[in-house]
Amino acid sequence: MSLYNAPNRNQREATWSAEQPEGRWRAYSFDDIAARDKASLDIFWLKDDSLADSDNLPAPAVIAQEIVEDLQAALEQFKLIAGDLGAEVAETA
Question: Shortest CA distance to 45 belongs to which of 59, 27, 66?
């Protein structure tokens, strides 16, 4: 967290630049942010290499089914936790 430099934010130094595109700490000016759509702070500059082969993604129905299964598994785990904490957990259809 030394890059964050909480005690003195004016001494922060960016590690990203055009010459160093993999840098993980990037500074933006107020004008840069204000020029974005609705001054959005949803900024990405690092490329996710796992998404590089997006042409070979499963069909949307397969992705949706996997999400449903993941959510159902998570719900079951939360039910167990709630039960361990003494909550009455209603069964869902």
Answer: 27
Burial class (CB in 10 A: 0-12, 13-18, 19+), 21: exposed
Q: How far is CA 59 from CA 51, 53, 66, 69, in A?
A: 15, 14, 11, 16
Contact 45, 16 (CB under 8 A): yes
Rounded to the nearest angstrom, the gap between the alpha carbon of residue 39 and the centroid of all alpha carbons in its chain is: 19
Q: What is the mean pLDDT of each run of 10 residues along the chain (93 residues)?
A: 74 84 82 82 70 77 96 94 88 68
Which pair of tokens denotes residue 22? 């993999």
pTM of the model: 0.41
